[in-house]
């Protein structure tokens, strides 16, 4: 081990809006020791996701919020450096819900061992083969139920989840339209990811009209990533029987005040449409199926994805802000340590 | 025929809020003559439903709006008084989407003949065996998918649809909680309809807390009739995997300005819940199944329902207002004529 302390970001107080350096603070603690059935992981990579912002608030949520004073949570991949469990040996690679820190203490039963990387980089297990990819896979196939020939519209299309949703829908045979901000993102979606159409929400003018133009037969599946006014525009363009899976609303996560809901929700009735929330955690028993399918498409060259790796745990809070101002260009991952640390 | 004219309410202009006597005006026209394939019906009963308010507006809807200058639409039952179709003879009883008028001209193929009333009054075919009962039947069973032991919460519980939804859910084996306004309605739900619990929203104080108390395991199915703030309270009390079928929002139909949507819609995500709009028209091919099931439960005494019959076509507009201020005590029907007219 190259350092004698465990650097850790902890939640000092609940943020109002984007978390600041007063809310999330770096501190130094001793490196933990494993109790019975526990392991200590030297974290190598950490996944930063918009959902973490929700865990910082005490609004009703699908899990209890991060306690004030505790390490901020995140999924990490690391190397086992101490083990008090027969399940893990020193040097094993373990994945689990840990925290923004150099070293994590975790129950062996809560960690997954990655034994075969299939020749893929470890970071892929936090992105396309992790909750990001599995959110796209199960949410689209299980909740969206796409049929060949249907029109899929995806917001946050250049994001980690959105870009995979569009590409999986293309594999299924859908017509895929993405909404993204900026010409670079739009070009990537058209040229690399094979989207049929893109809408640049920064330059398109009236978004409702732009959707109507790009989706002349209506939207059969809307992958809802964003919330806010964008959802209202899409609601006016639904096809009969439309499905709206949703697993997060980036536009609203940092609102200090609760904003009003979509004005046009009544369109669900007019179009016999469905809006359905889901959590990737619901699919844990089916994760092996999803990982196998995504890995195969990836190895066959059918899925393009980007990882945006930021080096250094100390940069985690600044990097976290990228998720909300659109600066990241792919799944956001922090490189905390190296294999030989 | 006892009169030489056809009295008819027509849409003079699109209402803002509740339709007034400036919006919906009674006029006299000649009694129509049937063209080829058409029949003329002497209307006996007319169904007044909140959805008619939606058809008066030109906001995007599931059907084109009623044209300004045209007769206001409604489902009616009447006696055929002139026929230019081999499908109908004079004296047959016909049901169809007609209008607020004494005599309706309609295409024979768009009308249904009621050949066997099963000993039930004709008005039942506009209420429990009409779109009201079928909305409850298909919406609850097909969209709500109730399982024995689950908790169903229904708003507008003493209304025509809501009271049937609760009773069908009881037949399925659910625990049924109703929200209604006023002690009379609440007593009827408990004593006659067999609801397990009721919440009087006029006296309960904090509705969110009242729902939490009456639904301690959360709401598995919420039958959404009302919209507005009530939905926000229910969203905070959903069980994991909850379903929210909805087919109308009485609270919002007469809003001159669009009101904000539910603030707590994000709870659909937190609870992996589903909100799904539907129209009873989607189930037309299955209407015989629904009518047979509802008639059997009715004849077995398992369903209690009330019809609120107002006499006289001329009273239709005033009666229509009852739907929005809660004055009606059962399915609202206008008695336009008698069998011997």
From TrEMBL, chains A, B:
InterPro entries: ADH-like_C (IPR013149), ADH_N_2 (IPR041694), ER (IPR020843), GroES-like_sf (IPR011032), MDR_fam (IPR045010), NAD(P)-bd_dom_sf (IPR036291). Keywords: Oxidoreductase. It comes from the Bacteria. Gene3D superfamilies: Medium-chain alcohol dehydrogenases, catalytic domain, NAD(P)-binding Rossmann-like Domain. Signal peptide: none annotated. Residues 20-334 form the Enoyl reductase (ER) domain. PANTHER family: PROSTAGLANDIN REDUCTASE, PROSTAGLANDIN REDUCTASE 1. This is NADP-dependent oxidoreductase. It comes from Candidatus Seongchinamella marina. The lineage of its organism: Bacteria, Pseudomonadati, Pseudomonadota, Gammaproteobacteria, Cellvibrionales.
């Amino acid at each position: 081990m190259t350092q004698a302390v465990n650097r850790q970001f902890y939640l000092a107080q609940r943020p109002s809006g984007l978390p600041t350096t007063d809310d999330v603070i770096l501190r130094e603690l001793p490196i933990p020791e494993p109790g019975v059935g526990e392991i200590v992981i030297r974290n190598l990579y950490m996944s930063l996701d918009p959902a973490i912002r929700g865990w910082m608030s005490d609004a009703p949520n699908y899990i209890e919020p991060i306690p004030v004073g505790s390490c901020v949570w995140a999924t990490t991949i690391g190397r086992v450096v101490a083990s008090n469990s027969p399940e893990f040996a020193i040097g094993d690679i373990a994945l689990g819900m840990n925290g923004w820190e150099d070293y994590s203490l975790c129950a062996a039963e809560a960690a997954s061992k990655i034994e075969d990387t299939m020749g893929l980089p470890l970071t892929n297990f936090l992105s396309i083969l992790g909750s990001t990819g599995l959110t796209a896979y199960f949410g689209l196939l299980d909740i969206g139920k796409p049929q060949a020939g249907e029109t899929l519209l995806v917001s946050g299309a250049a994001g980690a989840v959105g870009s995979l949703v569009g590409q999986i829908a293309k594999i299924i045979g859908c017509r895929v339209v993405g909404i993204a901000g900026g010409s670079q993102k739009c070009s990537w979606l058209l040229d690399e990811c094979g989207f049929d159409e893109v809408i640049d929400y920064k330059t398109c003018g009236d978004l409702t009209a732009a959707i109507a133009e790009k989706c002349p037969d209506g939207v059969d599946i809307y992958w809802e990533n964003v919330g806010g006014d964008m959802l209202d525009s899409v609601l006016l363009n639904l096809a009969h029987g439309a499905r709206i899976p949703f697993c997060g609303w980036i536009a609203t996560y940092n609102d200090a005040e609760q904003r009003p809901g979509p004005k046009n929700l009544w369109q669900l009735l007019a179009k016999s449409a469905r809006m359905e929330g889901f959590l990737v955690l619901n699919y844990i028993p089916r994760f092996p199926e999803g990982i196998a399918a995504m890995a195969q498409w990836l190895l066959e060259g059918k899925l393009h994805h980007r990882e945006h790796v930021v080096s250094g745990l100390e940069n985690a809070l600044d990097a976290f802000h990228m998720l909300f101002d659109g600066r990241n260009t792919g799944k956001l991952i922090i490189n905390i340590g190296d294999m030989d640390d």
